[in-house]
Structure formats: structure tokens, C-alpha cells
Amino acid sequence: MDGTIVDSTNAITKHWHKIGKELGVDPSVILLTSHGRRSIETLALYDQSKANWDYVSCIEGLIPIEYGADAVEVPGARSLLASLDRVNAPWAIVTSGTRALATGWLDVMDLSHPKTMVVAEDVSAGKPAPECYRLGIDRLGLIAGQVRTEILVVEDSPAGVQAGKAAGCQVLGLATTHSTEQLKNSGADWIVQDLRSVLVVDLRADGQIQIEIRNALQCWLISIKAIFAMVTIYDDLAPKSSKSDVKRTSASVSCSVVNFLLVRRQPFMRRSTDVSRALAFKIFGPFKISPCATVVAWKG
After folding, report:
1. Residue-wise over 107-128: b if at least 16 C-beta within 10 A, else e?
2. Which contiguous run of DSSP H or E holds residue 201?
3. Residue 206, Cβ neighbours under 10 Å: how many?
4. Could you tell me if 300 and 249 are in contact, meaning their C-beta atoms sit under 8 angstroms apart?
5. Burial of 245 per CB tally in 10 Å (0-12, 13-18, 19+)
6. Is 210 helix (H, G, I), strand (E, B) or coil?
7. What are 204-252's pLDDT values in tens digits?
8. Is 145 left (phi over 0), alpha (psi -120 to 50) or beta?
9. Core-most of 54, 159, 164, 232, by most CB within 10 Å?
């Protein structure tokens, strides 16, 4: 949630400076490993007596109240959540924060509340363990008759990306808190700057959600079973030698929206700094498609 829907970096920094002072620990040391990690696990490194849910829920519940003015929406978050609700799409928040923190931020920022949420208290192990996303998939009712690659996760942290991939999902990385290189190395399938690049186009009669992903910062040539994709390239951006063969860039992938995860694969054989700006991935799901297909994308 933090880094995908809400950018509370400044608020969290102030929070850990406060807690670090109480613990007698340099907050800069805490902040090196705290993002994307449950507070209960971070606190256990410094004071086991504070590593309990009563204490963690209490201090995290105060963050939106004390530091709400220091947080901002991730660009595109409000419109994306509204679009998901408008088409009644299945989506969930899967977060390393407590319920008090997650609901507190949604209330303070006046953002849409999902019907399904998985929070820190719900799982025995936090990210990069896949338990949280598996639970989210289960609560959304997306297990029966579906494969994990039909689920789209949107994440901003390496630990979150790894959790999504370990759960068998497709992961979209947001370069809001970490570098493109960090997200790529963690396994993201696609990487964009923020949620302005993610648009809900439609919820089809067969239950498939159509999503368009634009302006990819990093894309890869990938080959995935149980995905159907079709790619062409804009005439004016394609290499001159292939202009007669290709006309438009688009990729169709099938999946459902869980909350926020994504990304990686092998580098493409030709580099283009222009084509990346025109990429438009259309993602559908749940779906039925031919068993073997290839998704082709340009590395920009």
C-alpha cells in the first residue's frame, strides 16, 4: 500500500526517528531495512518486548493522525481505485502495515476502501514470503479454476515484488520508492513510474478486466504458458527495415487485479529509446487462452 497507493515516505521517516529515539537506535539504521517489511519484524531486531501486535497496532495507528500532512497520494492512485470500483473489479490491498495503519491512511487521504484486505496481523511471515498474496488470492475467491498468472500484483519494493512472484503472480513494479534496477533484479515483469500509467478500460461480460499499461520504463521479451499475447509496433517508431511488417505496439495479457504487484524476464534483442514511450499493454483476466504463447515487449 505504501509506495503504491499512498506515498508516506516522509511520515514513516518521522515515525521511525521517533521510535529510534525511544529504542536508543540510530533511525537511519532502522530505515535501511524497514520499507516493505512488517514493523513487528523490524522491532524484533532491536527490542523483543515491543515486537507484539498490541504495541505495533498502537504506534502505527498514530502515524496517519500525527503525520497525515506529510503523506501524498501516489499519482494516479485515486482514479485507478475509482475505476476498479466503477466496474466492480475484484481487488484487494495486501500490505505489510497493520489494519490500523492501512485504514488510517485510506481515511485520512479519503481513498476508496477495498472489500478485501490482507494486513500484517493476518500472516505468520511478511514479505518476501508469499503467504500474504496467497491469502489475498484466496479471499478474493480467485483460486478455483484459475492459475496464479491470471493475477496482477502491483508493488514498489523488492520484497513485495519477490512475494508476488513467489506466489506465482504477474508483478507490475512502481518506481516510486526504489530504482528500476532494483525492481528488475527482484523479478518484476513490467515497471512503470506510477499509477498514471495504469488504466482500467473495461470489465467484460465474461468477467475479464481490461487494463492498459502505458509508458513502461522497463519491459522484457517473455515467454509464458497460459497467456495469449499479440504485439505489433507503431509504423513511425519501428525500425526502418521492418516498417512494412509492423504497424502498432500493443500486448494483450490475461489476469485479474489483486492489489499491487509485478515484474522481470530476459533482455530483448533490440533496444529502442522511442518505442518504450508508446508501449500499451492490455491485460485481461480471468481468461481462457491457448496453452503456449509469447509476449514480446521492447526494452526502452
Report:
1. ebbebbebebbbbbebbeebbb
2. strand 198-203
3. 9
4. no
5. exposed
6. strand
7. 776 678 788 888 886 543 322 222 222 222 223 333 434 333 333 333 3
8. left
9. 164
Q: Which of 257, 253, 249 shows the shortest CA–CA distance to 224?
A: 253
**Cell 526502452 sits on residue:** 300
Cell of 238: 519501428
Asked if 194 and 76 touch (Cβ cutoff 8 Å), the reply is yes
Q: Does the structure show a pLDDT above 50 at 41? A: yes
Contact 59, 97 (CB under 8 A): no
Instruction: Pick the range with the lowest mean pLDDT from 34-43, 51-60, 237-246.
Output: 237-246
Of 196, 191, 6, the C-alpha closest to 97 is: 6
